[in-house]
Write a structure and sequence with these properties.
There is one protein chain. By secondary structure, the chain is an alpha+beta fold. Helix content is 51%, strand content 24%. It has two helices and two strands; from the N terminus they run ααββ. A two-stranded antiparallel sheet has the order 1-2. A hairpin with a 2-residue loop joins strand 1 and strand 2. Helix 1 runs antiparallel to helix 2. It is rod-shaped. The model has no long low-confidence stretch (mean pLDDT 80).
Length: 85
């Protein structure tokens, strides 16, 4: 979601900074465009970092029957970890 938000902010900022030639007395649209473009770049980079850090985890539950007792083991491992068993 942050990658898409970053792209949208960058595009809106580029339109405000480069494509519009409207004189508004109470706001500088070029500066607002540059600010939105900067925020879009930051949001895009944050999205890439979060996507790169995301790790897939597997949860494995095993039940072993022993004579007269039941034991349950539960382990969690992340992608790239070595086998626990």
């Amino acid at each position: 979601m942050t990658i898409g938000t970053g792209v949208v902010l960058f595009v809106i900022g580029a339109i405000l900074a480069f494509a519009l030639n409207i004189d508004v007395g109470w706001a500088d649209l070029t500066m607002i465009g540059y600010i939105l473009m900067g925020a879009g770049v930051v949001a895009f980079i944050v999205g890439l970092v979060l996507m790169a850090r995301r790790r897939r985890t597997d949860v494995v539950t095993r039940t072993e029957a022993a004579p007269g007792a039941y034991e349950t083991r539960r382990s969690t491992r992340a992608a790239g970890d070595e086998e626990v068993f």
